Amino acid sequence: MKTSLIILAAGKGTRMNSDLPKVLHAVAGDAMLVHAMAAGATLSPERTVVVAGHGAEAVTAAAQSYDETATVVVQTEQLGTAHAVEQAKDALAGFEGTAIVLYGDTPFVSPETLQEMMRAAQDADVVVLGFKAADPGRYGRLIVEGQSLERIVEFKDATEAERAVTLCNSGVIACNATLLFDLISAVGNENASGEYYLTDVIGLARARGLSATAVTCDESETLGVNSRAQLAEAEAAFQSRARAALLENGITLQAPETVYLARDTAIGRDTVIEPNVVFGPGVTVESGAVIRAFSHLEGCHVSRGAVVGPYARLRPGTELEENTRIGNFVELKNTTIAEGAKVNHLSYIGDAFVGAQANVGAGTITCNYDGVMKHHTHIGARSFIGSNTMLVAPVHVGDGAMTGSGSVITSDVEPDALALSRAPQVEKPGMARKLRDILIAKKAKQQRGS
Ligand code: UD1
Ligand code: CA
Fold first, then answer.
1. pTM for this one?
2. What domains are defined for the chain?
3. What angle in degrees, to the nearest 10, is found between the helix axes of 32-41 and 56-66?
4. Tell me: the pLDDT tens digits for 177-197?
5. Atom of ligand 1 lying closest to residue 103 CA
6. Which residues surround ligand 1 with Cβ inside 6 Å?
């Protein structure tokens, strides 16, 4: 069955008390909108339409950075969820298939639940995702008779008896696109909020003799974020699920509650993660690696058998090949460390290639930035970079070469050569004692004078 997504993301999110549109607040390193888009993307949608409003420019950028084919339409006035969905009509012109409506502020609806809705949409004209709420609060209530979903009543418009219903509306709807827009055109705004409610399409469909049904999921999937407190809850819920999933998949977390994961963190079996490690977006760690305490990783790939940290920082574009060693206070950016190479202490290596089995000494720095442009450093295989070497890029150190410690390397080094660039050592016998005597005498004179 063909699918298209309509993701509602026009709301301001007043209760966030923020300049940033609500759907751009991040959970696990990605905007909530991106979580919703990623869940929907598992259905391989033909088209994805994001309905933006508040902060439309920023919302557009975020949506298209995740999926450059996504269409963003702007709802200039927020007149209700049905009105919001209606904004997607032109963008879905000619599409024949099922439209799924998701909310940009409801990040955790699972791919499995969406699949189940698609299955249910083969039998029913309208499918709504519901959940049993521990505290139904102000959610819309699903009014079900037998297997049939008869209508949804919003809290504000509900009677006491209807408010006692605990089966609530998540907001997610699946319906044939043409039918959905047809039903929406019949939605009015005579209700307690004066809004065009998407939820009215259920009653309208039933009045036409069409069928409607509810699929249910766990309440944790429908968690919606309206405030910073709920954002923090969403983050905590994500983290505890993601940690549990890693443990389940054979990864050791020595102190799970201190490890922070991103939406897309992927870690292989038998990898060990020590306490206080933070994973930003875009990290893949293969099997059998060790990430030691207090390391921070983002946009990088760590291969089998690599050991990272403690206190290492891997920035975007870092590629660690097998059995590499990255030690304490080492920062890597846009750099490949080839098999078996080591950068063990106090270094910055950026825009570089470090060849297999090379050893980069303590305090080595690639001077990659001239204040205007970035330049590349090549460190050859099996080379030995002496401690405190400054590699002024662009520069190329050949395979098997050495640099003397403290050298500032400004020109290329041939393979197997030793490059030295530092002032030669001079020694003046007795000079230290002489100097000390002069200084002591000077201090004594000052003290007498004062
Ligand atoms: C909605 C549902 C309610 C459900 C609840 C689940 C309706 C009428 N009510 O209520 O049954 O239990 O969600 O969280 O649908 N939005 C727009 N444009 C608009 C209005 C809303 O894009 O004009 C977006 C919002 O940004 C938000 C989503 O739609 O992402 C839901 O809107 P919101 O106003 O929060 O609806 P609720 O009152 O919570
Ligand atoms: Ca809401």
1. 0.91
2. 3-222 (3.90.550.10), 345-350+359-443 (2.160.10.10)
3. 40
4. 999 999 999 999 999 999 999
5. 30
6. 8-11, 51, 53, 75, 78-81, 83-84, 103-105, 139-140, 152, 154, 168-171, 197-199, 224
